[in-house]
Design brief:
By secondary structure, this protein is mostly helical. The chain has 7 helices and 2 strands; from the N terminus they run ααββααααα.
Amino acid sequence: MGGIAFLLAVSFVLSFMDKTSSINSIMSGASRSKTSISTDDNHDGVLAGNSFNVKKPFDDRQPSYNAESVKIERAKRYLLMKVDNRIKQLNPFKARIVNMTVLKSSDKDKLVVELNDEISQLQAYLTEIKSCETKDELRIVADKIKTVWLQSSESVKHAEEKIVALKENQLIQEAVSAAAGIQKRIDVLKSAGKETRNYETLLAEYGKKIDAAKQDVKSANATYLSVASASSEGEKAVLMKDTHELLKSAQADIRAAYKLVSKEAREDFSRRYR
């Protein structure tokens, strides 16, 4: 019955395994939410159909019979569509931030203020676009849109990295609690004279994976905090990439730790009931 007792011990650990899928959805959501700023006609945005190309509204390669007024109207429609789409993208993201239970109120407030400011600027540009009468006026507005677009992309990126880090911290805390519960079960088996060597080895391997994840998350948090003091946009981009990679590594370690336990549980069950 020693194996059955162990199965009972690990059952609540396995319930955490599906939580790692939420990390996947956030990480992939981060990729979907990023919107690139293109300055040439051959650049594909990260989010298909919602990238912002500064030159596209003013493409003179269109048929020459198009009157200037037609070209201006076409450019206005393009800009209006892109800005409206961006607002529709940011509003649901803001609502998601507000409803995030893992975020502190202070963090929520800061992120929401940033997003509200960017949404308000974009909404103001909708009116400004409509009032433009020349290409030059539209180009000026397009450049301003580009600046806010970049700012909002950074806000989204920073918010999502922070959410991922907090969720992984939560998973690690649960994994540590699970390890303590398994150790108690092993102690019970030991006191009953049962063989526990294999389970102890398994728990040690599990602990190594969780410790590695804890270190990666700690490093990711430190790297993320250093973004604010970065001296250039290039340095910020490198630091954000490093943060992302550290969080991915932590996620992989957490998943590997859970798989170790689930594999042993399945094998133990198979041995006893085949």
